[in-house]
Write a structure and sequence with these properties.
By secondary structure, this protein is of the alpha+beta class. The protein has one domain (4-132): SET domain (Beta-clip-like), CATH 2.170.270.10. Helices cover 20% and strands 26% of the residues. A five-stranded antiparallel β-sheet has the order 4-5-3-8-7, with no helix packed on it. A two-stranded antiparallel ribbon has the order 1-2.
Length: 159
């Protein structure tokens, strides 16, 4: 049973909350991520900026194009930002998922928070391969994008 629940907050938004007490160190989510290509028109879209994460990077490719940008799928979008979060985030070893882990004990019904700026930098010569079933063409076709997003979310819910 999941220890994470979604609730409507007083400001009208939806946030991830603790369904029961959570002990420090527990991994709460392994959210698949959608990496946006460097040439994507979405990099400058202000609405995407509300949900996207930038991965700090000092590789040659990142110096040329800028930091990689990705969007977590599933409930990964619903963790609220905080400068003093109760959860840490990092990319999985293979770079295919964003891992959300409690960094302290969290009480039932508490809002689950992350710091969107706390991802560790990429410092190797090759940015991690981020698994994605989306092509640049899919991102330009909203209907196809939503179909593939629904399939990925269904796969995540089955695992």
């Amino acid at each position: 049973m999941s220890k994470v629940d979604l609730k409507y907050l007083k400001d009208g938004s939806v946030g991830a909350t603790a369904q029961e007490n959570i002990e420090a160190g527990l991994v709460l989510e392994n959210c698949p991520i959608l990496k946006l290509s460097w040439t994507s028109k979405y990099h400058g879209d202000p609405s995407v900026a509300n949900y996207a994460f930038r991965i700090p990077c000092d590789t040659d490719e990142c110096k040329k194009h800028g930091n990689p940008l990705f969007i977590p799928l599933g409930w990964g979008l619903l963790y609220k930002h905080s400068d003093n979060p109760n959860c840490n985030i990092h990319l999985s070893q293979d770079g295919s998922t964003m891992v959300i882990q409690a960094n302290k004990a969290i009480k039932t019904n508490s809002l689950l928070t992350i710091n969107k700026n706390s991802l560790a930098p990429i410092t190797n010569t090759t940015p991690p391969k981020i698994q994605s079933e989306f092509s640049e063409e899919d991102l330009n076709d909203d209907e196809e994008f939503m179909k593939k997003m629904a399939i990925l979310l269904e796969k995540q819910n089955q695992s």
